[in-house]
Design brief:
α3 packs antiparallel against α6. β3 and β4 form a beta hairpin. Strands 1, 2, 3, 4, 5, 6, 7 and 8 form an 8-stranded mixed β-sheet that branches. By secondary structure, the chain is α/β, with parallel strands linked by helices. The chain has 14 helices and 8 strands. The longest helix is centred in the last third of the chain and has 21 residues.
Length: about 325
């Protein structure tokens, strides 16, 4: 039986550390680089970094270390953030994004250097972003001729540029300069899009090499479920100012769960593996990169493996991937 193996990685900012730790455990179980066990990988926002790192062949252990080493540079603490915003008041106004994006760009360049998108090993590798000028999603594919020479760091920066957190990233696509923002506004959980791409890819294959959807094995990694309630009074009384930042989290979280529902309806239990956990002991902010919260996120990820059934689920997934 032909297997078609898909890896999907949600957005979530610094919470991507959770998914990175689960990927590290999966790689240890497989005893081989993750890119050798997947036919398609898709990622959004922080998941784009994870997806491209896996496709490049970076050890999962190294990916985990990046969140600890570079997290505070991407998401500086309060003092540095306020100083940055003060210096941007005259150019960007009082409502400037929280961060200028320079730390994010530097971190991504450090990881991917001059790697071009077409050089990534898993084909296809998909990264999601959103074009604010033409009001449409943009799906970067390392199998499309027009995307092959694009720098990986730049594609990831576009996918990570969440509204209110970072400025839009402007890229030259074709002949036009295009403002791109976080792909989470369209596909924070890229699983449904990845399955659709898998169906399209396999339709173009010879009959003997083609995998039908019943032959797909899909691994979908979340970055933690939001647990902070928005009570009745807040939900009824908040206006544009109060909703400005929370609405991003709500939209991302809601679309993530909706896609998970779709996947459970079209794939059998032994073909679809969703890894997700509640954020009861760690902050659910996308940008809290202080040492205390990084450790709390790591502990949350490990607790899910040891006490939440995650390790057994990884064993089942690994068995499917080895076939």
């Amino acid at each position: 039986m032909q297997r078609y193996r898909i890896l999907c990685l949600d957005g979530g900012g610094i919470r991507g550390l959770i998914a990175a730790i689960w990927l590290q455990q999966l790689e240890q179980k497989l005893n081989a680089p993750l890119r050798e066990h997947f036919d398609l990988v898709a990622g959004t926002s922080t998941g784009s970094l994870l997806a491209c790192a896996v496709s490049l062949g970076l050890p999962a252990e190294r990916i985990v270390a990046l969140y600890f080493e570079r997290g505070s540079a991407v998401f500086p603490g309060t003092a540095a953030r306020l100083w940055s915003r003060a210096s941007r008041i005259f150019s960007e106004g009082l409502s400037a994004p929280r961060y200028d994006g320079k730390g994010l760009e530097k971190a991504l360049k450090r990881v991917f250097a001059k790697t071009r998108f077409g050089e990534l090993a898993i084909k296809p590798t998909l990264v999601f972003t959103y074009d604010t000028f033409n009001r449409e999603p943009v799906v970067f594919k390392n199998t499309k001729p027009e995307h092959l020479e694009l720098p990986v760091w730049e594609i990831c920066k576009a996918s990570c540029s969440a509204p209110t957190y970072f400025p839009a990233h402007v890229m030259k696509l074709g002949k036009a300069r295009t403002p791109l923002i976080d792909g989470g506004v369209a596909a924070n959980n890229p699983t449904a899009c990845a399955i659709a791409e898998g169906v399209r890819v396999n339709k173009g294959r010879p009959a003997g090499e083609r995998a039908e959807i019943d032959d797909f094995v899909v691994a979908s990694f979340g970055t933690g479920e939001l647990t902070r309630p928005i009570d009745i009074a807040e939900a009824r009384e908040w206006g544009a100012l109060e909703w400005a930042v929370p609405i991003i989290d709500v939209l991302f979280d809601g679309s993530t769960d909706a896609v998970n529902y779709i996947a459970t309806q079209i794939l059998d239990d032994d073909r679809y593996f969703r890894f997700q956990t509640r954020l009861d002991a760690a902050y659910d902010d996308m940008d809290n990169a202080d040492a205390t919260n990084l450790n709390a996120l790591a502990n949350t990820a490990r607790r899910y493996l040891s006490a939440g059934g995650g390790d057994a689920l990884l064993d089942r997934l690994a068995a499917q991937l080895r076939r």
